[in-house]
Protein 1
Amino acid sequence: MAPALIIFDLDGTLIDSAPDLAAAVNGMLAAFGCAPLSLPEVRRMIGDGVAMLVGRALAARGCAQADHAAAARIFMQQYESDLTARTAAFPGVPAALEALRAAAIPLAVCTNKPALLTNRILRSLELEDYFVRVIGGDSLPFRKPDPRVLLALLDALGAPPEKSLLVGDSEVDAATARAAQVPFVLMKHGYHRAAIAEIPCIAALEGFAELPALVRALPS
């Protein structure tokens, strides 16, 4: 039996946005006279929204005394100037989404990135039409890992938690799914900080080419 709904995280799951996020982080750091971070360093900081990313970047460069609100504004100015200059969908994403849509499975996005930016990115990468609903970090009064963000989405689309899936890349996604009692699929290519073996999931996939087959093999 096909899932009632498949929900996807965005950054690190559907798209590799780390290069653009790193460029914006380093532009922000430069504005405060701080040294830049490497791409791998920034990758490990992604996943909890802009405020956490900016705070981690400032702390990593000993700039924690900087005005965090001003730093976040500078980061957003840098990032919004070109959201997809270096960002791309991970290999196999369009083909997997097409296969799932052909199987009549509703698809949605749940991310901590602001909704307006999320929709702009999905449109730019020609992924927007695959999703029946997009929930951003500012769409509701709560965000991941608060399970209410998933439960609100499930309720709006009439999908039981146990018959749905969350596909993500991090500990935050895993914790959200577990609290909402939604089965979780981990994409290994993402921005997780813990070891893959430490992240609870029903499956850990190397890439999106494996997702349709996994969905077809799910028990009814």
Protein 2
Amino acid sequence: MGILSRLFRRKRSTHISLIEDLVRENFNLPIKNYELYEEAFRHSSIIDGDTTGKRSNERLEYLGDAVLDLSVAAYLYITDVQAQEGLLTQRKSRIVNRKNLNRIGIELGIEDLLDVRMRREDIRDNMVGNALESLIGAIYLDHGFVKTDKAIVTLMIRFGIDAKIHETTDFKSKLHHWAQKQKIDISFEVVREYSESGEGKYEVEVLADGERIGLGSGRSKKIAEHDSARRGWRTVFERMEKEK
């Protein structure tokens, strides 16, 4: 075997090892089909003029986009049984958007592993976000939907999916503003701390002059407070509508 061949094999081995580390550390899954993951990180620029039959990551990106969309949609549907279609759609768009996916891809270090024919400094953020979707497509083909879905939800929670759900409306401020006008005392109290699937969870109730008007839950006290405030504001809003 020639020197160039050995160097190429060594470089390929190092590259796939780094990909393997990324997948294991961030998705908690092994790699079974290595070719899928090499394809997931292969940008279209690298196959210009290639005659070996290699494929870029664009097909996997298409697949990963659909898998990610379904996984996040199901998570939102399950975690809030009261939310209607319009609100669920808004929440999903705040999570599965180009800016958010680019950010997550960059923080995972996908940019450093992209196989491209350009200077590293010329890699655009969108290329990184697209590669994240390609990687999800590869994981889906390698492990099926159930394991991929669990890995996606765990990753998205780590990168603030719950905060994204509630970030546009400050229901606590709405409640406090209403309470000041009505001369009502608003308070939040933790009613339960528990563990679910190995993760800590909180239940927080919001009280209006001692009456519970909302009960929320979340992975942190802050998220649980936001959730209870949202439910509390819904109670207040419905009462105001009835009084009209």
Protein 3
Amino acid sequence: MAALLLRSQTPIEFEVASIKKADPDTRGRYIRMQTAHQFLAHNHALKTLIAAAYDVSPQAISGGPEWVESEHYEILAKAPGDARPSLNQQMAMLRALLADRFKLTIHRERKEMPVYALTVAKGGSKLKVSAVSPDATPEGPPALAFVVSSVLRLPARYASMDEFASLLQRSALERPVVDQTGLTGRYDFDLEFAVDETLFGGALGKGLDNPTAPGLFAALQEQLGLKLEATRGPVSAIVIDHAERASEN
């Protein structure tokens, strides 16, 4: 029994991981499972990797040397096990990798700062209850991730509002997002919007070739019956205590 307990407390880690500097001309930025076992973080700074790993907005991260924002990396890693790891498991492995290869140490502080409140728009939500079974495949529901084409698309399946708010704050928006919708279910929806330099930290440039597409804020109301309201609120922020450049391998 003691041995079983010890194994259950062992941190989950990638079997192997390669970290290399990203090409300075590289565009776009994402984290996803390429296959059931292959994890890829594309064109990420250490700061945005921390944001993903600890589920915070990059704006809620402070401290550390200048290069944690300016230097970008490509990470390719192999996940253990037979099935695709859940998002929580992926981020646990990423946290372990950052601690090991970047010698990252952090602490948390409660801070009052500008946030976006995700709420239900006037007229009510347009979301549909998910028709996806989480146990239908060994890999589970598809990952919640933006797709770049002539617009930004989010084909969300079996997504909660908490997960949606987390995705918005970690990648698209410049401030933390707090779910205040009161919607507790899981939903299927498709969101399409134009991108500009204020989204994704400017990583996608000044815009994609679709001037007729609505912006993110308008698309949320028109397509999902949701809205983002600028306000202030308490946030569990992260302070970087120590970080070192990872050796490329």
